[in-house]
Structures are given as structure tokens and as C-alpha cells.
Amino acid sequence: MSELSIDQLRREYLQGGLHREHLKDCPIAQFEHWLKQAVDAGLQDPTAMTVATVDASGQPSQRIVLLKAVDKDGFVFYTNYGSRKAQDIAANSKVSLHFPWHALERQVKIAGVAEKVSQKESLQYFLSRPEESQLAAWASEQSRPVSSRELLMQQFASMKQKFSAGKIPLPDFWGGFRIKPVRIEFWQGGANRLHDRFEYQLQDDGDWDTQRLAP
């Protein structure tokens, strides 16, 4: 069997550059513009993002979750508050997000601070989810060991029976986090590895400073 030489796997990035005059003054507006283009291009899971956290011992951890809201205040996702990511955030609220839009030769990297969204906001989103997803939130003790998939399905069936008579309530252990950004980088692939990178940095007066970074 021949060995796979991954050191020779490469391609050129030729879809186009990113120029300062094309950037919006606000990075949230720039992100929304790029997100719309990712959706319009038919990318699979355009809202999928890597959420990187650090636990109390300093060990980083990453996982992919779906962005569920973005506005001037930040980027929102939902999770079990007993999950590993939530425990990490409780120990260190600094979080990094990463959107890998490979098909468009783009990346967005966000550094910020996580805070819980209001219960009202969590409830509003929870009630918008399919019933099966609501039940799954109750059935799964996220990040905890489970002996088998059969047991997980039994827990799901038990919750389905328990809430069969009416609305499924919001679990008190489930809700959203909003990442309030302090730094956002937009990366556009370029020929000869001369990529375009622009970083927005939040200033003390609430304005954003923008600078080009070397690739």
C-alpha cells in the first residue's frame, strides 16, 4: 500500500482578494455580509462554527456548534449549561470562534467574552426548535458518560412520555451564550499564499480600529 504524502497536498487560492475600501466600518456588518454570501452560495452548514474554550487547568478544547443569532451585541449559540464547554466558560469566559468557509476561500476568526443570554431569549429560541430537539435537550446529560446508545434512546422515550400531555418546558440547565467580540479577523485566500487579512480591534470608546495583517 502506498503511503499518503500529505505534505504535497496544496492548492492555489484564486477566487479574489479583499481590499480595505471594500470593508464595512463595523465588523458585525461585514460578517453579516459574508454570511449572506455563504448562504447564497449554497454552502453546507454556513452557520457552523468552531467554539474554542479553555478549562480551569489551561487545556484548550474545540467543538463545532451552530450560530443561532448575530447582532450588534455579539454571536449566540445554545447548549446544556452542564456541558464541557459551559464548564470551561464558567472557569474562563474568554472564547474564540472560527468560521471555515472553505468553498469561498474565506475564514472569520472572533475573539470575545461569553455571557449567558436572558432566560426570555433562551425560551424564545427553545420554543422555536422542533419537538424532537426539545426532548433531546431534556434527555441528554451533555458531555457526561453514557453506557450505551440504547440507554440514551430510553431516556429520550421517557421524556417523550413525560411531556406527552402538553408543551415541553425550557430546562433550567439549558440556554444560550452570547460571545461579545473584542477582535474579529477576516481572511480571504490569495495567490502564492499572499492572503488578505484584516483585523478589527474594539477600542475603549466603542469604535473599531482596522488594520491589515501580513499573511
UniProtKB/TrEMBL annotation:
Domain Pyridoxamine 5'-phosphate oxidase N-terminal: from-to ranges: 35-159
Flavoprotein as a keyword?
A: yes
The record's listing under Pfam families reads: PNP_phzG_C, PNPOx_N
Binding site residues for substrate? R10, R11, E12, Y13, K68, Y125, R129, S133, R193, L194, H195
Q: Which domain of life is it from?
A: Bacteria
**What molecular function terms (GO) are annotated for this protein?**
FMN binding; pyridoxamine phosphate oxidase activity
This entry's Enzyme Commission designation comes to 1.4.3.5
UniProt-annotated binding residues for FMN: 63-68, 78-79, 84-85, 107, 142-143, 187, 197
Query: In which pathway is this protein known to take part?
Result: Cofactor metabolism; pyridoxal 5'-phosphate salvage; pyridoxal 5'-phosphate from pyridoxamine 5'-phosphate: step 1/1; Cofactor metabolism; pyridoxal 5'-phosphate salvage; pyridoxal 5'-phosphate from pyridoxine 5'-phosphate: step 1/1
InterPro entries in UniProt: Pyridox_Oxase (IPR000659), Pyridox_Oxase_CS (IPR019740), Pyridox_Oxase_N (IPR011576), Pyridoxamine_oxidase_dimer_C (IPR019576), Split_barrel_FMN-bd (IPR012349)
Q: Which reaction does it catalyse?
A: pyridoxamine 5'-phosphate + O2 + H2O = pyridoxal 5'-phosphate + H2O2 + NH4(+); pyridoxine 5'-phosphate + O2 = pyridoxal 5'-phosphate + H2O2
**Ranges for the Pyridoxine 5'-phosphate oxidase dimerisation C-terminal domain?**
174-215
Gene3D superfamilies, sorted? Electron Transport, Fmn-binding Protein, Chain A
Q: How is the cofactor bound?
A: Binds 1 FMN per subunit.
Q: Quick one: a GO biological-process term for this protein?
A: pyridoxine biosynthetic process
The cofactor named in the record is:
FMN
What keywords are annotated for this sequence in UniProt? Flavoprotein, FMN, Oxidoreductase, Pyridoxine biosynthesis
For this chain, the family text in UniProt reads: Belongs to the pyridoxamine 5'-phosphate oxidase family.
Q: How does it assemble?
A: Homodimer.
Instruction: State what this protein does.
Output: Catalyzes the oxidation of either pyridoxine 5'-phosphate (PNP) or pyridoxamine 5'-phosphate (PMP) into pyridoxal 5'-phosphate (PLP).
Please give the name of this protein: Pyridoxine/pyridoxamine 5'-phosphate oxidase
Naturally occurring in which organism (per UniProt): Pseudoteredinibacter isoporae
Protein's gene: pdxH
